[in-house]
Amino acid sequence: MYPFSTQNGKDFQNLLSVYLDAAFFPCLREQDFWQEGWRLENENPTDPNSPLVFKGVVFNEMKGAFSDNERVYAQHLQNKLYPDHTYSVVSGGEPLAIPDLTWEQLKQFHATHYHPSNARFFTYGDLPLEQHLKQIEEEALSKFERINPNTEVPPSHTGREDHVTCSPDALAPDPARQNTLCVSYLLGDITDTFEGFTLSLLSSLMISGPNSPFYKALIEPNIGTDFSSVVGYDGSTKEASFSIGLQGMAEEDTERVKQIISQTINDIIESGFEEERIDALLHKIEIQMKHQSTNFGLSLASYIASSWNHDGDPVELLQINDSVAKFKQTLKENPRFLQDKVKHYFKENTHRLTLSMSPDEVYLEKQAKAEEEKLQKKIHALSDSDKKDIYEKGLELLAAQSKTQDASCLPALKVSDIEPTIPVTPVQISTAVGVPVQYCEQPTNGLVYFRAMCSLNTLPEDLRLYVPLFCSVVTKMGCGGLDYRQQSQQMELRTGGMSVSTQVVPDSTQLDMYEQGVLLSSSCLERNLPHMFHLWSDIFNNPHFDEVERLRVLVMMSAQELANGISYSGHMYAMTRAGRHLTPAGDLNETLGGMEQVKFMKRVAELSDLSQVIRTLVRIKKHLLNPDNMRCAINTTPQKMSDTAAQLESFMKDVADNRKERKPVRSNIIEVNYQQTNQNMKPCQMKTFFQLPFPVHFISESIRTVPFSTTTTPGNHTYLVCVSSRCGLGEVGTVHPAGHR
């Protein structure tokens, strides 16, 4: 899928023209293949005596992708679950198979698959559809004859067990428990819309949240740290699948986990699901239909793409209300409808794969050896003339990379095509029991959105490392008269989700000023507004931090998630670390979301006694969940605004007692100059290296520049865009300049 978006009609036409040209009429020059795909080249392109090595953007990117153990497992699972066709190979390219690809093969693949006969077009927005269709026809479709791309995917048949290996994870919460096990079941054809809807809903009932059967059976006994990286319903392939398993488990628990999965399926068939859980899930679907996010159109395109590509009905997929109504009626007529599905697709289904994965201490050495053998095999087949040709091609590519490209063929916007002013969204500033509130009337489709920023300014330094953990668990431990299961159920029944996250916002005028806090976010249907604020009130007044075993489960899951994310988000971690010593905001970002936080959570996960952690969370609550350190924002329809303001006022009165727990040290939300908090901190140069078990490196250099509001910002931003598209692409996978993430 190749998506783009813009608010400008002329820009949309320009982008559509560029995308059509790039997709259907690319140059695909051999030199492009060398740079973007793979090539043999001297390590130093200007020295013919330097060793020959593999290079190429995609080659390096795929090596990076397979440094992630979760990606390795997910890829093996799909390849082995669907061993007969498209899904049996790596779509981005198996790193050691990429050097076998030829330029001619690439061109032939493009001619067959990047053809209108194998394409789908999706547009969303308020621009005239007729113009889009006319442009697509004139610039692309009219220039081709229909062909049969032969992309039909035949049914798969599997029923076996298999095992793969991966590299050990030095940051795993428990080094002795790094095994993964998953059972995957082949389901029906995704073009059956109602069956897919039912199975997706059934998957959520089985695995989502602390009230689900598999969460109770697999996560809470602390057999593993989290569900396997592939879990739940997957409707992206021709035949859907459902997967359930654990990661972060001991090898000796393999048979135990298999037995638990089998027994849990039997229990579901016997007992079914509580009606309240089904209602909560249908409520979630209702909110998803009403919630129009920034990427709403892209989400719709992604939702229908797989089924549509296999000749399913995209319109039927979007008629979700019809599927909900049919589901309710079917369940009413047959109360065991869902249990029958579980029996058919899971207990009696022989088309399944059980895949285990364990760490291998010499995994990376084996990978490096295989690559070296591949390299030497290709080098030994070269004549002296071939080597000379490789050297000369390397010089050609180096010269081409340094050459300024001709951009005159690209369409451009004129100043007259751009609106001279940016529409201003009107907001009303008020207070609720002394707390600043921003009200914004919007067509929210029957939803109310609530956000609150709670300052970190008064938080003692020794508590800062714990703030991300506090944010992660405060809405999941239980509150008021609800235990954590009841709280989760009420959140699903009454809200579109309640989350707490850290926020570090650099000042736009001064580099050494910033705002620090935690952001509370939630949404609900208009009818559930009192319930949403009641839940927040219970979280403010009486969060349950004393549930030790529940906290241990959440700590292990959080530590596992952070450890898993390093290879996937390596550039982000490198950039965060590189910016640490340049600004106070950069230093705090590293503390709250960088490698320092990853290592800290590993230490917390290794603790046998969490009593000190619990005491710390209680201290943080007294500082953060306090109206004196808070400001709020409300977005809803004009008709609902008055009632929402009254409900917010009532909520603020309910939590006002928290003000008595400590005396405010500073005013509401302020930006803090680093000289006021740490006289010794000055911007400085620092070089840092983290030794991690990956076959690729993530490198970042950060430079202290100027504040956002200066007159040079537009030029700086343009420069960063240029750097991101050109710098280093001859040697590395991807460039991510700071400020253009």
Automatic annotation (TrEMBL):
Any one GO biological process: protein processing
Domain Peptidase M16C associated: 357-604
Annotated spans, Disordered: 148-171
Major localisation: mitochondrion
Keyword Protease attached: yes
Gene3D superfamilies: Metalloenzyme, LuxS/M16 peptidase-like (3.30.830.10)
Source superkingdom: Eukaryota
Keywords, in A-Z order: Hydrolase, Metal-binding, Metalloprotease, Mitochondrion, Protease, Zinc
Localization (cell): Mitochondrion matrix
GO cellular component, as recorded: mitochondrial matrix
Any one GO MF annotation of this record: metal ion binding
InterPro entries listed in its UniProt record: Metalloenz_LuxS/M16, Peptidase_M16_C, Peptidase_M16C_assoc
Pfam families hit by this protein: M16C_assoc, Peptidase_M16_C
Cofactor: Zn(2+)
Record-stated family: Belongs to the peptidase M16 family. PreP subfamily.
Self-association state and partner proteins as the record states: Monomer and homodimer; homodimerization is induced by binding of the substrate.
PANTHER family: PRESEQUENCE PROTEASE, PRESEQUENCE PROTEASE, MITOCHONDRIAL
Descriptive protein name: Presequence protease, mitochondrial
